[in-house]
Amino acid sequence: MALICDNCRKGIGYGHAVSHAKNRVNRIFKPNIQKLKVLRDGIKVRVKLCTNCIQRLKKDRQIGHFRLIQYIKADKIIKEVLPQEPKIKTEEKKEKKEEKVKPELNIEDIVGKA
């Protein structure tokens, strides 16, 4: 399996393993590549993504041409998940704020009429 992410093209990196005595030995840094089924142009495709791209895909529901698939009840229903628009209802918020306002208290009501 090629160790290259299909989205960000992250691949093998080369460097040194440095010991406590500062001895340097060549080493390979491999990305954590996982196979994942996603939607591309409405077609289910298996791609190889690094874990950073998978996290971003789960958070944003879309990366580049790839969209997340949500599985419900063992592959019977496949639903495409798109980012949802935030629902803002200003009228309801204003009504709730008005309900929360407490009536003013008079000192006479608390202490009693003298």
From TrEMBL:
User: GO biological process annotations for this chain's record?
Assistant: translation
Kindly state which keywords UniProt assigns to this record, in alphabetical order: Ribonucleoprotein, Ribosomal protein
The record's listing under Pfam families reads: Ribosomal_L28 (PF00830)
What InterPro entries does UniProt report for this protein, alphabetically? Bacterial_rp_bL28, Ribosomal_bL28, Ribosomal_bL28/bL31-like_sf, Ribosomal_bL28_sf
Instruction: Say yes or no: keyword Ribonucleoprotein present.
Output: yes
Q: Which organism is it from?
A: Candidatus Gottesmanbacteria bacterium RBG_16_37_8
Judging by the UniProt lineage, the source's domain of life is Bacteria
Q: What is this protein called?
A: Large ribosomal subunit protein bL28
Tell me its family. Belongs to the bacterial ribosomal protein bL28 family.
